[in-house]
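Worked example 3. Consider a protein that binds tryptophan.
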Amino acid sequence: MNHPRRRPAVLGRGAVVATVPVAVAALLTAAGPATAAGTVGASGVGDPYFPFAGNGGYHVDHYGLTLGYDPASRHLTGTAVLVARATQKLTRFDLDFKGLKITGLTVDRDKAAYKRSGQELVVTPSRALRKGQTFRITVRYNGKPGPVTDPDGSLDGWVPTDDGAFVAGEPQGAMTWFPANNHPLDKASYDFTITVPKGRTAVANGVLLGQSTKNGRTTFRWRQKEPMAAYLATATVGKFKVKQYTTRGGVKVYDAVDPREASAAAPVLKKLPSVLDWESKLFGPYPYRAAGSIVDRAPSVGYALETQTRPVYSSAPDLSTLVHESAHQWFGNSVSLTSWKDIWLNEGFATYTEWLYDEQHGGESAQKTFDSLYARPASDSLWEFPPADPGSGAHIFSDPVYARGAMTLHVLRTAVGDRDFFRILRAWAKQHRYGHGTTAQFERLAEQESGVRLDKLFKTWLHTKGKPGHP
Ligand code: TRP
Ligand code: ZN
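Given these inputs, the predicted complex is written out as structure tokens:
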């Protein structure tokens, strides 16, 4: 498959749930986020596509996750310590956490009352939290985690494999293996301590601080210092061949590869340093101190995810998939979404990076790639909706987001010229580094950097359904 990160027939299936926005509006009201009293944290951040994603009333600064996983029994034991800060007075707040059994929950060492409802873990601390107060939530839990099914029918979260687990959380799955403020609006640093049977490897994000084996079990300690959205966290477990090295630029690379995928993966993974170098020239400095790849064998997943610093692949990737997931480190990971509706800011950018890579490495020009897509008839699903308005969570990983999103960038490039186009991309990565960006902010930046009026271009290509007239 040319694009293993995408699942087939996403568009076809998605069309069935076109009425979701209406249901969503109802849910938002039913959930009754912080109203008059104003001391109850909202059950969501207000994302219309995923109304219960994230929570109101606090931000998480740090997650400390201590996990033990036994692939044979598929049993997970976890302790999550969240350091958070209240943004309002809180008599009650929610976390997102689905499935696993909770055996203890404290807020600043005091036992807290809690109840569960769907993905909401509703916590009532013994004393109200003051606005601005830093507090620590400790949740102990265990059980047999499994994935969630997304609105488009794909699996995400903790996906058991024959030798461990494939762990990827976009858009919703983080809450299947740790309690989180599960929306990209809230980014935090992470520490992972993961214990697995000797012979298995547990790979998370960031830098490996150390590993040690005792009584037939190995513990891996990982640290992700730069801010990360919960969906980009991983703790993938398997029998992996591991390779570690440092690039000339000082980035620590850790590759973990399922031996059954090793011969197919090797020639592609070898290119990671040169791909990151090339992308750094186009987009500005690589945002992280660590990099690498996790190549698993997870046939039920069928896509890759740009897990921060170290993408996870459900089978050996081809080069353009590696280029794509690497581009997300700038676009999607360092510069995060504020709302899932803006997903083209991730996928359009990563897809256009594939085109640019081809163009600059002896392949097809971006113009040719554009032309062959543009040749698709007006009835093609590519034109079904505009990139910046997928309509619901069921459509966020489909063609209009990826391909037409990339086409939009190409039209922009043609309109402003190469110099300004690449200046816009670099300015975007720089101004929103480790933060967030919106479609409106990108449009404004493109006009500022180029001095060209672009409202019509963006209106046509990003916001209007149907096949645009020839640019
Ligand atoms: N963001 C991933 C990529 O483009 C793809 C992805 C993540 C995905 N979760 C998904 C695709 C769920 C389909 C369904 O690299
Ligand atoms: Zn992508």
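Take a moment to read the result before moving on. The radius of gyration is 22 Å. The CA atoms of residues 184 and 252 lie 25 Å apart.
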